[in-house]
Specification:
The protein is an alpha/beta fold and 202 residues long. It contains nine helices and seven strands, in the order H-E-E-H-E-H-E-H-E-H-H-E-H-E-H-H. Helix 3 (80-90) links the parallel strand 3 and strand 4 (99-103).
């Protein structure tokens, strides 16, 4: 998923022959694809700066948009307990049909027990140690078993892409959206992995 305009994503699709999707955020506020083709996920922008009014407006518009795959409720980077508190605080905002919960450092099975039935996507957040560690892997596998989508944020390099290539339904990375050389590097890696099988994570 790329945090770019729909026009730019169409250009990337044609140039690289890959079906890129859109990541929308309150920071850039790109509009959905006017042709009604490119799916998107709505992030909350909390990693940089959470803007609650803009996010709430975009979330409301996206709730019934068939192009929207999931809406990420507000989170606190690296803190599962505070993220869970925010999840329940915002849960009643009216977007229950397509919610994403961000797993963070400190996530436990007890925290997830009541959250699993409420979401359709697990967004792998947290710091680098968490994102590349056993807890993120285990909960992503649980999500897949429960028929939830798995999205991984901050995938900007080949090492993290390799780790999640066959196990994530989608990825994003700010570097991929900002820098052509970063995007092209990962496109080369993705194409090199096509028609291969990943047997293990580590």
């Amino acid at each position: 998923m790329l945090d770019k305009s729909a026009r730019q994503i169409w250009e990337c699709r044609r140039k690289y022959d890959l079906k890129f999707e859109q990541l929308r955020t309150p920071l850039t506020q790109y509009r959905p694809d006017g042709l009604g083709v490119i799916p998107y996920g709505l992030d909350n922008g909390a990693y940089s700066l959470f803007q609650p009014v803009k996010w709430a407006r975009m979330a409301s518009d996206s709730s019934n948009d068939p192009l929207c795959k999931w809406i990420v409720l507000p989170d606190v980077v690296g803190d599962a307990e505070k993220t869970t508190e925010l999840f329940w605080e915002y849960y009643d905002a009216g977007h229950q049909n397509k919610l994403a919960y961000v797993i963070q450092n400190g996530i436990t099975d007890d925290m997830m027990m009541d959250i699993w039935p409420k979401i359709n996507c697990v967004f792998v957040g947290g710091d680098d140690a968490f994102k590349d560690g056993e807890d993120a892997w285990r909960f992503s596998q649980l999500a897949a078993q429960k028929d939830k989508a798995v999205h991984v944020g901050r995938v900007n390099g080949p090492a993290r892409l390799a780790r999640w290539f066959d196990y994530a339904d989608s990825i994003d990375g700010s570097g991929l959206s900002k820098y052509t050389h970063s995007l092209e590097r990962l496109v080369r890696v993705i194409k090199s992995y096509e028609n291969t099988v990943q047997h293990r994570l580590f």
